[in-house]
Design a protein that fits this description.
It is a single chain. By secondary structure, the protein is mostly helical. About 65% of the residues lie in helices and about 5% in strands. Strands 4-3-5-7-6 form a 5-stranded mixed sheet, with helices on both faces. Strands 1-2 form a two-stranded antiparallel sheet. Helix 1 packs parallel to helix 6. The N and C termini lie far apart (about 85 Å).
Length: about 550
């Protein structure tokens, strides 16, 4: 009993560590492009308008994503009433939930130690922590897919049968669908189970598979109903309104979201084209340091296959299905396969403690930490003591000057120095401890020291403050060729002329709008879109934000424009 309580305390200490690492910096920055300002703007407009079924970006409907994540953002805002604090809360809670599910599943299949190894592997993977500290949909959909796989696994592996967990897993998959569409991937976890049961019935016995009695078709079908029921929570009222409102924009939203943004985007992707081996690179680089275990895991997985151990190969086969699914599409992004990370960690969980004792792995982990420490320390000191090209480029793009730039590079150098100190202190014998220290230094340093230094420019806040100063307190600013962060960070009255509309059309609309009340209005436009007819001498340059230069144009500067 005392041993069990002690082991349980390790889990809670681990979760506290994860909370500190992933939550560091909460409230210290505003949303950054590319996705964060868009999603927060959509949620903010939902909150302010009360329109929960049809998301908007400015005046236009936003059909790129289902609305559940925006509801979660608005719910977080309802609790804390501050968007800078609220916008990271869903990702933080989803990441912590994913870690808890990963731990508990491995604990039930093996023991608490395996659970900690699995959860630790997920937390330490660079991509997981990076996404958990951003307001993107991916951490949320990873949680729902992981919950779906968890629920199905509780039913089909040796801890089952458990129909309630199966139904909950299917329901979670449906919630994943109304988060980002790909939540159905959790249901693919049924395929390895069906295959293992088929092989077992033919005499090739798989160990660890649940013995579910025949004649349960009704219960299995209830899982499908749970999946569809979760989707119907949003889809049914949305479709009813779209088909009965008489608003052609609602019908266009329905067609765009259900067809163009799902099937068309997968079958005939129009961006993010990558070669078929792309996800191999993602796993090797973005899932460091966990990916360094893979060479030693291959032999253990081979042995588990020979032993027909379903606890190892059921999650591993699901990972392979996910990789095949995303590889088949020409459009690939690194975060697409993130839902596979917890399952890969589960397949590695029983072996990681033994592999961590291997001398070769410990030296690889030490070398990784030393390399990162040297890079950070060297980059920081070089920027402080000289003017290397990367420093000048970054400072020009981010609008950093004076002490602000020095503080940034000092923080980078300090993070590198701390990692090197930890490497010297732990050495190869305690390489796993070194990885935890490195993760803490990197992500706490990023959240508390680095991100706040970049926030004014990255969020667009400094730009919009300068625009308000130049325009005057009561002047309405019209946005031409705008990005979501400008509308989100705008101070005082603003107007926009469509986001997807061609910039020439936006300019024409804006110019006509400006001339209706020239004394009370001004236009804000990207430098690259500023027509030649505008008098640059009388226009106001606002500076650089997100690698774009912006101008404020009043009526007298457009006298030559037609």
């Amino acid at each position: 009993m005392h041993q069990e309580n002690g082991d349980a305390r390790y889990f809670w200490w681990f979760m506290l560590f994860a909370l500190v690492v992933l939550g560091a910096g909460l409230g210290l920055r505003s949303p950054w492009p590319a996705d964060e300002p868009r999603f927060v703007l959509v949620a903010k407009q939902m909150w302010e308008s009360g329109e929960w079924l049809f998301p908007h970006r400015g005046h236009e409907l936003y059909a790129d994503k289902p609305p559940l994540y925006f509801w979660l953002l608005a719910g977080a805002y309802a609790l804390v009433r501050n968007w800078d604090a609220a916008f990271l809360i869903p990702s933080l809670l989803a990441a912590l939930g994913t870690l808890a599910l990963t731990y508990d599943f491995a604990r039930r299949q093996w023991d608490r130690r395996a659970g900690l190894w699995a959860a630790g592997a997920v937390l330490c993977a660079f991509q997981f922590a990076y996404q958990a500290k951003r307001a993107q949909i991916d951490p949320t959909v990873v949680f729902f897919i992981t919950l779906g796989v968890y629920g199905i696994g509780r039913h089909v592996l040796s801890t089952g049968p458990n129909w309630r967990w199966y139904w909950l897993g299917c329901f979670a998959a449906g919630l994943g669908v109304i988060s980002k569409g790909v939540g159905f991937l959790a249901l693919l976890a049924l395929l390895p189970y069906v295959w293992m049961r088929w092989r077992t019935n033919r005499g090739d016995t798989w160990h660890g598979v649940s013995s579910i009695a025949a004649g349960q078709a009704g219960r299995w079908l209830l899982g499908g109903l749970a999946f569809l029921g979760a989707i119907a929570l949003w889809l049914v009222p949305m479709v009813v309104v779209a088909l009965t409102s008489g608003d052609p924009e609602h019908r266009a939203y329905l067609d765009d979201l259900l067809f163009r943004q799902t099937a068309t985007r997968y079958v005939s992707a129009w961006h993010h084209h990558q070669p078929f081996w792309y996800y191999g690179e993602v796993i090797l680089l973005f899932w460091l340091p966990f990916s360094l275990f893979i060479p030693w895991l291959i032999g253990r997985w081979r042995d588990a296959w020979r032993q027909r151990d379903a606890r190892v190969w059921w999650p591993l086969l699901w990972v392979l299905l996910v990789l095949v699914f995303f590889t088949a599409s020409s459009g690939k992004r690194d975060m697409y396969i993130l839902p596979a990370l917890p399952a890969l960690a589960l397949s590695a969980a029983p072996f990681m403690a033994a592999i961590a004792q291997r001398r070769g792995l410990r030296w690889l982990l030490l070398s990784l930490a030393a390399l990162i420490g040297v890079l950070f320390l060297g980059a920081g000191l070089a920027a402080l003591l000289a003017d290397p090209g990367y420093e000048l480029k970054l400072e020009a793009q981010r609008g950093l000057t004076g002490t602000g730039a020095d503080h940034l590079w000092l923080a980078v150098a300090a993070m590198g120095a701390l990692i090197l100190v930890a490497a010297v202190w732990t050495r190869a014998r305690r390489a796993v401890t070194l990885m935890l220290a490195m993760v803490a230094i990197l992500w706490i340093g990023y959240g508390v020291l680095v991100a706040p230094q970049l926030d004014g420019e990255s969020s667009g806040r400094d730009l919009m403050q300068q625009a308000r100063v130049e325009a005057g307190a009561d002047t309405t600013i019209g946005l031409v060729g705008w990005r979501e962060q400008q509308l989100l960070q705008a101070l005082g009255p603003v107007e926009e002329f469509g986001f997807k509309a061609p910039t020439k059309l936006q300019w024409q609309r804006g110019l006509a709008w400006l001339r209706e009340r020239p004394g009370d209005r001004a236009l804000m436009i990207q430098a690259g879109l500023l027509p030649a007819c505008v008098d640059r001498e009388s226009a106001h340059p606002l500076g650089v934000a997100n690698r774009r230069s912006w101008w404020l144009v009043k009526d007298h500067s457009t006298a030559s424009c037609r």
